[in-house]
């Protein structure tokens, strides 16, 4: 496990694709990839350097960069509540897409948000993430929230006809197309 995360760290960088959520709170939640598959799931924030690099990358790639500006990394004492907030964001908004959002998950999200707002400096990633989550809760765009059919990321579908299936067509759309093609070829090859 330690070796695997070392390798991930050495070859990993934040790219526009990793900010496909369309809101900072969702991009933070999406720092865990393949959540639905524990065997292949990876937490990009498990490495502190990667979490710090995420804060720096927001000014280039976050859909809310104009709103929040440059963000400072999460200080060590706020990392645990920040990760609690991340999980609360994922659980609540994922359940909301699935139509299964009970009061308990919303309460968890509000508690995690309050815990961060009480301790975070203005301009820090964790404060902006809390604000982003609260904005999303109250925003009409919540009706455009979806779960990527390939990687399981949360994203806001801002397309005109609300027809997006993938967080990012160039990555997940193509991967899904390739695996469909592969399965078809395999079927055809069978006598
Ligand atoms: Zn995806």
Describe the structure concisely for a colleague.
The chain is mostly helical. Helices cover 55% and strands 5% of the residues.
Structure characterization notes:
The chain is mostly helical and 191 residues long. The protein has a single domain, classed as Jann2411-like fold (Orthogonal Bundle), CATH 1.10.3300. 55% of the residues lie in helices and 5% in strands. The chain is built from eight helices and four strands, in the order H-H-E-E-H-H-H-H-H-E-E-H. The protein has a two-stranded antiparallel ribbon with strand order 1-2. The protein has a two-stranded antiparallel sheet with strand order 3-4. Strand 1 (32-33) and strand 2 (42-43) form a beta hairpin. The protein is globular. The N and C termini lie far apart (41 Å). The model is unreliable at 1-9 (pLDDT under 50). Bound molecules: zinc ion.
Overall structural domain count: 1
Question: What is the level-2 CATH architecture name?
Answer: Orthogonal Bundle
Q: Could you report the average pLDDT, rounded to the nearest whole number?
A: 91
CATH C-level class is Mainly Alpha
Topology summary:
Blueprint lengths: L1 H10 L12 H6 L2 E2 L8 E2 L4 H14 L3 H4 L10 H19 L5 H17 L5 H14 L6 E3 L6 E3 L12 H21 L2
Antiparallel strand pairs: 1-2, 3-4
Helix pairs in contact: 5-6, 5-7, 6-7
Bound molecules: zinc ion.
């Amino acid at each position: 496990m330690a070796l695997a995360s070392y390798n991930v760290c050495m070859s990993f960088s934040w790219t526009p694709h990793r900010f496909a959520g369309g809101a900072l709170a969702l991009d933070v939640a999406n720092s865990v990839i393949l959540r639905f598959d524990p065997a292949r799931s990876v937490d990009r924030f498990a490495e502190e350097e990667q979490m710090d690099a995420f804060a720096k990358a927001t000014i280039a790639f976050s859909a809310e960069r104009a709103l929040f500006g440059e963000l400072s990394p999460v200080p060590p004492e706020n990392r645990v509540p920040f990760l609690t907030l991340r999980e609360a964001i994922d659980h609540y908004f994922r359940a909301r897409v699935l139509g299964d959002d009970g009061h308990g998950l919303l309460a968890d999200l509000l508690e995690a948000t309050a815990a961060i707002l009480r301790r975070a400096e203005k301009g820090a990633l964790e404060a902006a993430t809390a604000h982003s989550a609260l904005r999303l809760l109250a925003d009409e765009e919540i009706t455009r929230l979806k779960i990527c059919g390939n990687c399981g990321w949360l994203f806001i579908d801002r397309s005109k006809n609300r027809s997006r299936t993938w967080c990012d067509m160039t990555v997940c759309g193509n991967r899904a197309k390739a695996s469909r093609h592969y399965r078809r070829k395999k079927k055809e090859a069978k006598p």
